[in-house]
Amino acid sequence: MQRSRREFLVLGGTGVAALGGLAALLGACASSRSGSSFPVAPGLAFRQPDVLTSVNGTLAVTLRAAPTMVPHGSGTRYALTYNGTTPGPTLRVRPGDRLVVTLENGLDAETNLHTHGLHVSPSGDADNIFATVAPGASRTYTYDIPSTHRSGLFWYHPHAHGTVAPQVAGGLAGAIIVEDAIDELPEMVASVERVIVLSDPPIGSGPGTMSVSPMTQMQGRQGPVVLVNGMSQPIVPARAGSRERWRLVNASAARYYRLALDGHALHVLATDGGRLVAPTEVSEILVAPGERVEFAVLPSKAGNYSLRALRYDRGRPGMGGGMGGAISTGELTLATVTVAGSASEAVLPVRLAADDSASAAAPSATRTVTLGMGMGGGGGMGGGMGFTIDGRSFDPARTDIELPLGHVEEWTLVNASTMDHPFHLHVWSFRVVGAPASVGWKDTVNVPAGGAVTIRIPFTEIPGRTVYHCHILDHEDLGMMGVIDVTS
Ligand code: C2O
Ligand code: CU
Ligand code: CU
Hints:
Blueprint: H1 2-11, H2 15-26, H3 28-31, E1 51-53, E2 58-72, E3 75-82, E4 90-93, E5 98-105, E6 114-116, E7 138-144, E8 152-157, H4 164-170, E9 174-178, H5 186-189, E10 192-199, H6 214-219, E11 227-228, E12 231-232, E13 235-239, E14 244-250, E15 257-261, E16 266-271, E17 274-282, E18 285-287, E19 292-297, E20 303-310, E21 312-313, E22 328-329, E23 332-340, E24 365-375, E25 385-389, E26 401-404, E27 408-415, E28 421-425, E29 431-432, E30 444-447, E31 452-458, E32 464-470, H7 473-477, E33 481-487
Parallel strand pairs: 1-4, 2-5, 4-9, 10-14, 13-23, 24-27, 26-33
Antiparallel strand pairs: 2-3, 5-7, 6-8, 8-9, 10-11, 11-12, 14-19, 15-18, 15-20, 16-17, 16-19, 20-23, 21-22, 24-25, 27-31, 28-30, 28-32, 29-31, 32-33
Helix pairs in contact: 1-2
Bound molecules: CU-O-CU linkage and copper (II) ion (2 copies).
CU-O-CU linkage binds near residues 114, 116 and 426.
């Protein structure tokens, strides 16, 4: 108790914030509007968000976005939640289902909803990020998930340009699972499935914590603590000889996680929304903002093992490093896995899915897409840093890329800046050219500072107008986003 109380006060920062934190501590019960939020003192047992599952082909839910005081340490913190919790409920659907979400806006700013990675229409009342919902208003989104949809882990979050980083960092995010056949493979039936949403929210007692300085925005905001399903350093109890199947989403606005688990290999089963052909063993996985990864862990010996985020350096904020040192994330413990018993490692399936990578072969066109940060540009930060794609800042009225439905294109993503940028395309998944076997279909890919990545995108089945952008959400808010129109 003492420890978490002290942690809370330290994190409160300035004297005023600390006083606010104290007030929040004293009034914890009275001010909390959430009966089901997650306990967060370090060392509590791992918990998952509530799960809402489709019945007879339909899942209809209401998500209310609203400010909420949620538990933090032995007190509370100010957060933005869906239905009172952060992360929001996990939505579980199947290919061919209809997902209907009524979004109620209880915030004091515009918001909307995006289904990151889902291959659904970006138009009308589906995954249309150009439409926004005013404070106090609501909107019903209807997503028809194609019967051919790939299974995997996706997620939902707000996408109202200019407010995305504070809203997602504030806590507005939840997982979407499209179920699949690997659940029925004999080697997977008994696996322990865990949804893990990583976030690093600001810690404070009021809405002031949601605004950051222009310098922090330029770097991409990172919070003072990393939470696993809203909990600080939970304990994950596991049994030797079991199959742990972890489905993890990086819902941080800007933080990268270079994941490793002490004493264990990670057996990758899927990346973003794409099942691998076979489990592929790695010792660590870099998960950039927006990315997901699914992997198996096969405990065999009793003990306590840390799930770590290893140190990662994602570049420098200014041209030639002139605007400050490297943006580094030091090593952190995310959770502790406590293994009981002793048994030989469980066996994984030899084959997970058919190889459907050929649909990304033989591109009919190529393009270069350049991610840039320049001084003094019209990037929306008067005289500051301009965040651009192909030299232009986001304009919802302009279409940057237009192509006909049915084409496969090869894009070379060039990072002309001194910081990493995770590139994300809505609606259509892609393959990364030259990627190792541990990488399948992707919708978000990190483009390292000064580097380039080539992707192949089949623009199949679904036409429509939507966006591609950097998933460091501050960069997106500052204009690093373009508009694509796939015409039928
Ligand atoms: Cu995760 Cu354009 O979004
Ligand atoms: Cu998206
Ligand atoms: Cu960026």
